[in-house]
Amino acid sequence: MIYEQWLKENGKTPRTISRYLNIVSDFQSWYVRESGEEYRPDRVSALDLQDYKQYLIRDATYQDAQGNSRRYKISTVNNTIKGLRTYFTYLEEIGQITSNPARKLKPQKLQEQEEEPRWLNRPERSRLLFYVDHQEGTKNPWRFARNRAIVYVFLHAGLRENELVDLDLDDLDFVEDILRVRNGKGGKTRYLPINRDLRRALQEWLEQRGELPTKAVFVSQRGHKRLTTDGVYYYITSLKEKTGIPDLTPHVLRHTFAHDLVERGESLHTVAKLLGHTNINYTRRYVTPSRAEARAAVEKLSEER
């Protein structure tokens, strides 16, 4: 049985299967490059896997949507470790190896700065919304409406990048004001309420979008093809210079959605359900004040004198 089929039979989603196959391919390329030998699974040792883990943490880079070289986040390294453990479990199960070298391969502990999510504070959020609500509309109404709707989906629904680009027209129900997220993390479907601001932004975009042969909600202006996650990432990060907001990414907007709900008194269980978290400990991070918020709270003591 080939690895791809084995993953399907073990309930992995197409997106996860694609990612796991890429993880194996990248590891095999690294092994050949470093060892100078032909790749054979039975030659891989636990030490090889530890070396690869350290390579990912210290040396490996990738190109982002803007062509910049970036280091991998620890969370990405840990996803790679999970993929390699799955791969070697498969090899052991089908008898290609007699001993599993990945059995003791452990995730890397998250560094402190990566445990604390970044979200927009109120002035930053207001500045971003002012820009997308007013300044972009002067040149290209079609692109203005689309990009405004993208920002509103992140801030008012908290979607992940891949969930946003996967949205189809029939995922939007304006009768019940429900947005359906198909194939979220873990292949699960969830339903999110559409509030008044998000409904207006989406409907104004769909009016500009018009009738197209594709069912994708968000499309490129040239060719009318479904937007890619790289395209969305590039647009959101391009707003850093235009708004003066540092570290602006789609994930920061998703974090802002979660933090805003917690700040308004919503329960962790409600926020976890909206985000698609199966582990509430991930959601608990949004209750912890950021360093900036903690500092501002303590500074108030000085202001009272």
UniProtKB/TrEMBL annotation:
<protein>
    <recommendedName>
        <fullName>Integrase</fullName>
    </recommendedName>
</protein>
<dbReference type="InterPro" id="IPR044068">
    <property type="entry name" value="CB"/>
</dbReference>
<dbReference type="InterPro" id="IPR011010">
    <property type="entry name" value="DNA_brk_join_enz"/>
</dbReference>
<feature type="domain" description="Tyr recombinase">
    <location>
        <begin position="115"/>
        <end position="299"/>
    </location>
</feature>
<feature type="domain" description="Core-binding (CB)">
    <location>
        <begin position="1"/>
        <end position="92"/>
    </location>
</feature>
<dbReference type="GO" id="GO:0003677">
    <property type="term" value="F:DNA binding"/>
</dbReference>
<dbReference type="InterPro" id="IPR050090">
    <property type="entry name" value="Tyrosine_recombinase_XerCD"/>
</dbReference>
<dbReference type="GO" id="GO:0015074">
    <property type="term" value="P:DNA integration"/>
</dbReference>
<dbReference type="InterPro" id="IPR002104">
    <property type="entry name" value="Integrase_catalytic"/>
</dbReference>
<keyword id="KW-0233">DNA recombination</keyword>
<comment type="similarity">
    <text>Belongs to the 'phage' integrase family.</text>
</comment>
<dbReference type="Pfam" id="PF00589">
    <property type="entry name" value="Phage_integrase"/>
</dbReference>
<keyword id="KW-0238">DNA-binding</keyword>
<dbReference type="GO" id="GO:0006310">
    <property type="term" value="P:DNA recombination"/>
</dbReference>
<dbReference type="InterPro" id="IPR010998">
    <property type="entry name" value="Integrase_recombinase_N"/>
</dbReference>
<dbReference type="InterPro" id="IPR013762">
    <property type="entry name" value="Integrase-like_cat_sf"/>
</dbReference>
